[in-house]
Amino acid sequence: MSVLHNVCKVAALAGCLILGQAAAHAASAEKGKTLFMTYGCFQCHGTVGQGGNAGPRLAPNPLPYEALANFVRTTNRQMPPYREAVLPNEDLADIYAYLQSVPPTPDYKTIPLLNN
Amino acid sequence: MRGRRRFLRAVAGGATAGALAPLGAAAGAASEANAKAAATPRRTDTVPVPAAAETTNPPVEPVLSQGRPNADFMVDVIKALDIKYLPANCASSYRGIHESLINYGGNKMPEFLTCTHEESAVGMAHGYFKIAGKPLMTLCHGTVGLQHATMGIYNAWCDRVPVIVVGGNDLDAARRAPGVPTYHSGQDINAMVRDITKWDDNPVSLQHFAQSFVRAYKMSMTPPYEPVMIALDGGLQEEPMNEHSGNLYIPKYIKSAPPHADTAALRDAAKLLVNAENPVIVVDRMARSQNGVNLLVQLAELVQVPVVDQSNRMNFPNTHHLNQSEQAQALIRNADLIVGLEVSDFWNTVNLFIDNGLDNGFGARQSRVKPGTKLVTISSAELNQKSNYQDFQRFQSVDISMVGDAEASLPYFIDAVKSAISGDRKAAYEKRGEAMKKAWTQSHERSRQTAAVGWNAAPISVPRLTAEVWAQIKDMDYSLVSSRGGIGAWPNRLFKMERHHHWLGGSGGGGVGYGLPASVGAAHANNKLGRFSVSFQGDGDMMFAPGAMWTAARHKIPYLSVLHNNKGYHQEVMHVQRMSNRRNRVANLGTVIKDMGPVGTRIENPDVNYAKLAESMGWWATPPISDPAELGPALKRAVEVVKSGQPALVDVVSQPR
Question: What is the pTM of this model?
Fold first, then answer.
């Protein structure tokens, strides 16, 4: 997560441009869930963005859109960048709406199996 | 070869005297050519033999009229080494010793474990050793069988595990049958695995076999443990031993003391360790036994040094406050001393590599450590490296490099550290220990909170899957015999791992198809010790050679196999995705049939019915479970089935990783 948070600080121009374009699009969490699967995001981040062995947690409470979008477009870390030719802005906005829709995580202390 | 010629003469004479009677109806109609062939001790070499010769009896068989067969003595040699089991797939090129093992040897010590694939046989031997600490032997055709076995041998090589591989071979081109038996022969079958075995030989006499077999066993069992290979001539197996029998002997096996690091170098390393402000010990295949775990705890506690367990073995209890594996990156970045004990990839421990295509395709590389950080290693890997396969990884320069077995070196290292500690450092150690206790608690809680994310997701999350399994086995003496792949380190985070047998580590070479047979082999050893074996089984891994399930049922080897069914080869998904993105192309999920990942990486459409597959081979199995609420009860039933003596498979439709 530290990488993503660092990216958040430098999101700036690219993210703002994407945000501007996406704002004109009425993002759909339902469509975003489907796209989250078909673009393969779930392969590393899990079907509800919970994160896994190959990718960090994205949801609940995703990063600000501009930070996430900037990372998706420009990352040179383990995750390959998804440029607009591969992942259109509208689809990215839908995916973000899906991540925002993921309900909060319960405190692990309320889950008996995690207190064994 | 003189013995064989005498045997030929003896048998030919016997035939003249009517000692060789044609056997069976087919033999009764034998032609003159076949009658001449009857004078040879083995299959005809005058008439081309079709492929059926591999599966049917030859028209006539010679009768061994005098002496015991050489293979009986070979069995005596094998028994002398206390080899308990023989996982193998049958093959004509070792028929001589096969017959001796089950009839003369009574199928005991070793007992034949019928396998349906040579790779599975090696995998079983691999898993068995990790529990029993004793190697098994396997037999195979020296060509086609050995080719099947090779990937398993490579895994064992990379994982530093001894397996004694014996390949049958018909060396004598003048006598072996044409057709398939000749396809199954080679001049130097050992060449195929020479780069991934510690030692090999091709004995040409019975005494030579005895020496070579004992030597092979001894060398494989001297750290670093590795597979060894013996080529076994078919003629040598089948000849009578009358020529040699008076003087034959079995060399006594005395286990070699393992090599330890140079004591002067250990003293230098100890001085660095006691004076370092932020030392870290990194371990990978360090502990060969519980003794290794105990010694490492002793060393760490002396100076309250955190331990990062890369966990290709269970090296250090995860309930101990000095187990800081979850803080590995932070500790390494902040370290002024890193001591690596049997670390397979030290370069990648102290450097970061990102496969992002930067730097003209070389990828990003950056040091993980501060300038001036001292690096120390103890490893036995240098003692037997070969140059072809690259399991030695990238080269990393270090400040003190010690060649030797780390577990054998620890008592000397501990003594050196005790001698080097000065009284004025003890307060600093106590302070560090308190900080580690706090960090361990925070890490413990963080892991559980991370596990809670997606807790009720379907497909079932990997942490949920892990926690559900733990709930069923936590009160038993358990052994996690195989895992990894998409499961990652979750068992190491959620299970209590305190004993060496609680976790056996991975495959070694990353060759897919290890998990299933290694689990069967390890479970067999665990069952003899009254332990409950559990495995997280990858679906892709299972599909390589599922016949190992039948071996488990046939030989009454119960264990719990929890299928991490993510319907794909997820390690490869991101490789294809990365290439697609790098080239600005959308990954192709299929045109007519859409999969949930790039074409060629998924096992779906149709889904495999693993329950039917397992049940067909004598297992108890569940249908696929994707509702997390159903998982606990299914696992509970499966545990009871295993306790009753039957292997059980719980098919869990899971998140990819």
Answer: 0.90
